[in-house]
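Summary for the steering committee. The consortium agreed at its last meeting that each partner would contribute one worked example illustrating the joint modelling workflow. Our contribution is presented below. We chose a case with several input lines so that the handling of multiple components could be demonstrated. No manual editing was applied between input and output; the record is shown as generated.
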Amino acid sequence: MPEDDTLSEETRAAIRRVADDHDLDVEDVELTDEVLVLHPADSDRIPETEAIQRLADALERMGFRYVTFEVDTDDPEDS
Amino acid sequence: MSDQLPNPLRETVDTIVDEMREMSGMVVAFSGGVDSSVVAALAKRALGSEARAVTAVSETLAGRELEEAKEVAGEIGITHDMMEFSELDDPRFKENTPSRCFFCQSMRFDHLQEIAETVGCEVLASGTNASDAGDHRPGLQAMAERGVYQPLLEYDVPKEDVRRIARWLGLSVWDKPAKACLSSRIPHGQRVTERSLRRVEAAEEVLHDHSFRQFRVRDHDGLARIEVAPDELDRLMRGDRRRSVAEGVRAAGFDRVVVDMSGYRSGSLNPAS
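What follows is the complete predicted structure of the assembly.
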C-alpha cells in the first residue's frame, strides 16, 4: 500500500495499463483513505463481473486494499 | 419443521435442548438473525415460558432489523422484550479502535445481565457459532468474561449447520444474509457518530429498495464504498440502476459513491492480517 494518498505518475500509468489489460479504459485514478478509485472513461462500458474481479485481484496484488469504481450520477443525455 | 435433520447434527440439537432443560430460565440476546433465532427457538422448546428473547435497541441497530426481530420472535412464540441503551455514551466505543466491539458487547451484556437478574433467569445466552471464532471478534472476549452461554459455539456448530437447523425448525430467517451492527461499516480510527450511523442505514435502505440481497455501505469519512455480492455486481453497474443507487446514497448524506470491485466481503474493515 502506498504510504499516503498520493500516487506517482508511474503508479498511475501502471494502474491504467493493468486496467487496459482487463478491457477497462480508465480516465483517471486516485487514492483516498485506502480506497483506490478508478474513473472509467465510459461508465456504460464496464466489463463483466469476472473481468472486474480479475482486475481487482491484480490491483490488490499491487498493494491496494479497496479497489473501486467511481459511480457517476449524471445522466449522459444531459451532458 | 421441514425435512429431516441428519445426524450427527440432530444429536447435537437434542444435546443442546437437553442441556437447556437443566436450566431454570434463559434470556437470549436476540437480534433476529439466524443464529440468535435458532438459540431462541431451542430455548423455547426446552424451557417454554421460562425462555425469553431480549433485543438490544441502540443507535447501531437498523430500524428494519428491529422490525424483523419482532416478526421472527412472533414466529418462535417466545416472549420478546426490548432493551434500550446507547453505545455512543461510551467514548471508547466512539473512538472506534479495533477493540470497539469489546466495549460495545461489554455494555450490551451488562445491561442484559441486569434484565436476566430482574426476571429471575439464571442464564444469558447468545447465538455465537463456531464460524465466528476464527474472525476478528473482540466482542467474544466480552461474552466469555461474563460467562455467556453460547451453545452453537460450545458444540462447534458452524454457520452452514445453523442455517440447516433453522430451516428444519421452520424459521423464515434460515437464509437471511448476515447483518452485523451498523458501526462495522465505519473504518477503525474514524469516529462513530449518530450522523455516520444514520447515513449508513439510509444508504443501505436504498440498496434494499433496489432488491439487493447481500450488501454493505462502508463509510470512509463521507465516501460511500458499496459492496454487493459478486453475483449482484453486474446488476448494480448497469445504466439507470447505477445512477439511481448513487443518487439515493448521496441523498442519504454521502459526498461520493464508489462501488467495490471485489464485492461483499464479511469484515472487510477488520485490521489487515
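The mean pLDDT of chain A is 85. The CA atoms of residues 27 and 41 of chain A lie 5 Å apart.
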